[in-house]
Every structure is written in C-alpha cells, then in structure tokens.
Amino acid sequence: MTTFEAILLTIVTASTPFLIAALGELVAERSGVLNLGLEGMMAMGAACSFAAAVTFDSSLIGAGAGALAGALMAALFALVVLGFAANQVGSGLALTILGLGLSGLIGAPFVGAKRDPIGHITIPGLSELPVVGRLFFAQDLFVYGSLVLTLAVAFFLHRTRAGLMLRSIGENHTSAHALGLPVLRVRLLAVLFGGACAGLAGAYLSLVYTRFWSPGMIAGRGWIALALVVFAAWRPGWALVGAYIFGAASVLQLHAQAAQFGLPSQVLSAVPYAATILVLLLLSLRHGRAIGAPGSLGSPFVPER
Questions:
Q1: Are 212 and 50 in contact (CB under 8 A)?
Q2: Where are the beta strands (DSSP E) in 176-217?
Q3: Element (DSSP H or E) covering residue 243
C-alpha cells in the first residue's frame, strides 16, 4: 500500500463518524428541533458500544448498544424539550455535559481493553485495483452503511410523503398543526433517529477508529458534526461532501505534525476546528443568514388546548 493510498483510507475512516452523526442531526433539525447534545450522545454511544462489545465479545451487539444509548439520551432530551417545551439550546448543552460525565463512569472499567478489527467487505477482483480498489471496494460495514444512509435520508426527505410532512413541520409548526399534522410525534421520531445516529457514530469511533475506550475520545467531533449540518445547508448530499472535507482536515493535520513543519503540534491539532469556524464565517459573510435553515428551528411548540 502506498502512502497516498493509506492517507485516503484514513480519511474515509475519519470522515465516517462525522457523516453518520451529521445525517441524524440533519433530520432532527429539519423537523425543527435543535439538539446541541451531539457530543454527549456520541460519548455515550462510544462507551456503551465498547462495554457491550467487550462483555459479549460481539462488535455487532456493541454497535446496537451504541445506537440504543444514543437513542435513550435523545429520548431524555425529547422529554424535556418536547414534553415540557424547555429551551432547546440549554437542554442540549446540559445533555452534552451529562453524556460526557456518564460515559466516563460507564467506560471506566474498560480503559485499557482492546478490540479486534472489524472485518472489511471485499469485492473480489475490484478490491485488487490500484488505489480505488481498497478505497471503494474493501471497506467495513459502517462505511458502506453511511453512504446508504445518505441516499436513504435524501430520498426520505425529498421523495416521500413522510419526508414532506417532516419538512413542513420544521418550516412552520403552527401551520402544520392547523392542518392536522402530528407535530410532536414527528419531532420525537426525528430526535430519536438523530440520537441513534449519534450513538452509532460514537460506536464507530471506539469499535473501528481506535478500537479502545478512553475518556475524551470524542474530542469535539460532535460540535464539528453540528457545524457540518449548517455547512451542508441541511442537504444530505452536501453533508457527505462536508464530512469528507472535515475528515481530510483532521487527518492531514496529523501528517503535518509527523512531517515536522516547524509549527507547534497544538496549532496543527486546532486546524479542523479552525476550518470549521472559517467555513461558518464565510457562509455568514456571503449569505448573511443560514441558507436552508428550517423556519421553526429551535422554537418550542405548545399545542393549543
């Protein structure tokens, strides 16, 4: 394997959790719910998936446990912001703090444990092609699943009646309620889906990307995934593009450190987050507002009684 091919494969691996988490948050925000608890849900997914995988010696069970943990955290968030119409920003930040603390408690007994790599799905003949073979035809199930999920979310939002209902609720929940649409039910399902995706993204980090658990391993990826939704203008296709751009930034800064460019390692480690801020700033200067943002995003809904 050439160095160039190895870098490309690492970029795919680093981009996958961004994409999975961003797609889940995109669906939740399209319904009008802003969930800033992505970092905490990813941390819980990483801890619970690794704990389950080690306990039952099954990465499949671990992935399911990660998705379930994220969904349960999202259910708690939904209870607060949908059931009691609490402020979504404050509730999301509290969810992040809770998830980071609780994940540290759950994962503490498993610090130092290791998991075997998850097998890749190879296509005979095609996987042996130079460069593109291993890049496109010899990946793990998570990578293929993230690509399928992108297509599925795009199809759901723009080609199905349920997707139209969800987008209508996100644009104007008052009008949607007047038309008889189940606003709270749709938002609950969207938030649960977003939580499951965040938990699955965390599971990928602990089961595939690092294959161990350590506190703080999410390292701000949840915040980047949140910014990625804005960068993508709430479109699944652009979320795919943005995920690989930010994944490349996070990988290339590691290679820049290895090449010893003369810059402090702390500066190079900040590159992905600086790139996130720069992209959001450029979008703000160009458009003056968040293009594609749902009209009711972040607004609590209290049905008339």
A1: yes
A2: none
A3: helix 236-258
The more confidently predicted of residues 106 and 4 is 106
The rounded distance, in Å, linking the Cα atoms of 156 and 282 is 30
Q: Among the ranges 213-222, 251-260, 276-285, which has the highest mean pLDDT value?
A: 213-222
Residue reference for tokens 């619970």: 48
Percent of the chain beyond pLDDT 90?
Answer: 64
Whether the Cβ atoms of residue 275 and residue 269 lie closer than 8 Å to each other: no
Distance CA 242, CA 263 (A): 26
Residue type, 127: S
CB 161 within 8 A of CB 31: no
283 and 55 in contact (C-beta within 8 Å)? no
For 90, residues 6+ apart whose C-beta sits below 8 A from its C-beta are none
Burial zone of 264 (CB within 10 Å; 0-12 exposed, 13-18 middle, 19+ buried): exposed
Q: Is 153 helix (H, G, I), strand (E, B) or coil?
A: helix
Question: What's the pLDDT score for residue 258?
Answer: 64
- Summarize the confidence of residues 108-134 as an average pLDDT: 82
Beta-carbon contacts of 124 under 8 Å, excluding residues fewer than 6 positions away, are: none
Mean pLDDT of the chain: 88
Tell me how far apart the alpha carbons of residues 35 and 14 are, in angstroms, rounded to a whole number: 23
Integer Cα distance of 132 and 177 in angstroms: 49
Specify the pTM: 0.91
> How far is Cα 142 from Cα 60, in angstroms, rounded to an integer?
11
Class of residue 165 by CB neighbours under 10 A (exposed 0-12, middle 13-18, buried 19+)? middle
CATH class of 3-114+140-287: mainly alpha
- Do 233 and 292 contact (CB within 8 A), yes or no? yes
Q: What is the pLDDT of residues 49-92, one digit of tens each?
A: 999 999 999 999 999 999 999 999 999 999 999 999 999 999 99
Determine contact, residues 197/42, Cβ cutoff 8 Å. Answer: no
